[in-house]
Design goal:
The chain starts with 6 loop residues before the first helix and ends in a 6-residue tail after the last helix. The chain has 119 residues and is mostly helical. It has a single domain, classed as Methane Monooxygenase Hydroxylase, Chain G, domain 1 (Up-down Bundle). Helices cover 68% and strands 0% of the residues. The protein has helices at residues 7-30, 37-40, 59-76, 78-83, 85-113.
Length: 119
């Protein structure tokens, strides 16, 4: 086995680790470390923390976020189709119409169930 072929890969890994770890190590070694109670206190947007950090969030927040990501990613599939519209022909057009119909049915179902209501 000839290790000369792997030398560029190993060198690349070493340089990558050095670039990633080197500045962190230098900052830890050379940087000042003078903690005091003010620096170690919880800080939130310029105000003192006023509630427990482990408070519960409403599930609807996560539901709306997941639905947004889901529809956003599905809509992102339309861009390659739009670029290649002339190449895919009628078959591609029908496939996208079916895809959009499924999206509309899912959106209508979410709307009917009240998943998009924030109150």
């Amino acid at each position: 086995m000839n290790l000369d072929q792997y030398l560029p890969v190993l060198l690349f890994i070493l340089v990558g680790v050095g670039v990633g770890v080197g500045p962190l190590a230098l900052g830890y070694i050379l940087g000042p470390n003078r903690p005091d109670p003010a620096k170690n206190s919880p800080y939130e947007c310029g105000f003192e923390a006023f509630d427990d950090a482990r408070m519960k969030f409403d599930v609807r927040y996560y539901l709306v976020a997941i639905l947004f990501i889901l529809f956003d990613l599905e809509i992102a599939f339309l861009f390659p189709w739009a670029v290649a519209l002339k190449d895919v022909g009628v078959t591609g057009f029908v496939a996208v119409v079916v895809f959009l119909a499924i999206l509309v049915v899912g959106f209508a179902y979410e709307w009917k169930k009240g998943a998009l209501n924030w109150e």
